[in-house]
Amino acid sequence: MNDAIVASNLRKRFISYERIGFIRRRKIVVEALRGVSFRVRWGEVYGLLGPNGAGKTTTVKILATLLIPDDGYAMIDGHDVVKEAGIVRGIIGLVLYPDKGFYSRLSGYENLVYFGRLYGLSKSVAEARARELMNLVGLENAMNRPYEEYSLGMRARLAIARALIHDPPVLFLDEPTIGLDPISAREVRELVRRLRKEGKAVLFTSHNLWEVEEVCDRVGIINNGRMIIEGSPRDIKDMLGLKYVIEVEVQLNGRVETIREETTNPADALRRVINDVEARGLRISRIRINEPSLEEAFIRVIGDENG
Prior knowledge:
Elements: E1 5-20, E2 24-40, E3 45-49, H1 56-63, E4 71-76, E5 79-80, H2 85-91, E6 92-95, H3 108-118, H4 123-136, H5 152-164, E7 170-174, H6 182-197, E8 201-205, H7 209-215, E9 218-223, E10 226-231, H8 233-239, E11 244-252, E12 255-263, H9 266-279, E13 283-290, H10 294-306
Parallel strand pairs: 3-8, 3-9, 6-7, 7-8
Antiparallel strand pairs: 1-2, 1-4, 4-5, 9-10, 11-12, 11-13
């Protein structure tokens, strides 16, 4: 079985110009991607992370057939994104700018029916699919409201519904929760988890690293157009040697004393601390293990890369 998404040695350059004085200008070559490679499996949410300008959106646009790479190749379910762009567009769903591309005077439901028809669905199928998706993203009570009256959170959920209108097996979600309130963002995360359970492959980008850690099975961190590190959030933390903090509260002479230890091996360290406490005849009242965050890993990777 093919991997859902394959990116191999992707390279992309852009030409821009810097003004020098009032008349002259100088050509600048921007290396947006410098050999990015990764794979996404079916039923997996893959987080693509990086600082602003790292190359995340350029990568998504290449995979979605919106840009042609200068070198390397990309495949979606075994189809080349350049040579078979038409096929690829039929099997992907894209959320690139959540609040763009809709018709403001049409209702949310009418927008979905319209896009379903563009994908070749019959009128009856498009209408049924639109109703199903409005329920799926929690907009069933706003089906007939004009899009221009939708809040930002409602527009973001409608954008995901539009990406799903033709039931694609592969989804690209580029910062789908940006600007959303906590409740709307949580609903989007729950929807992403549901899509994973259905076996869909999801490429997810976000600057909210807590959110990425919540929903993504694996992540890749890119910087300056290069893939720096890749793996599950836990694997990345272990590769970087980030330390867990173990805190064991014990009763000592009527007071609470906290024994604190930093370690890269929490299981062994906790066992050792508990054995020591029991050997001293003390009573444990509370144990807390603080795991290093993905944000710490991200800062370490980008800090080391930028020197």
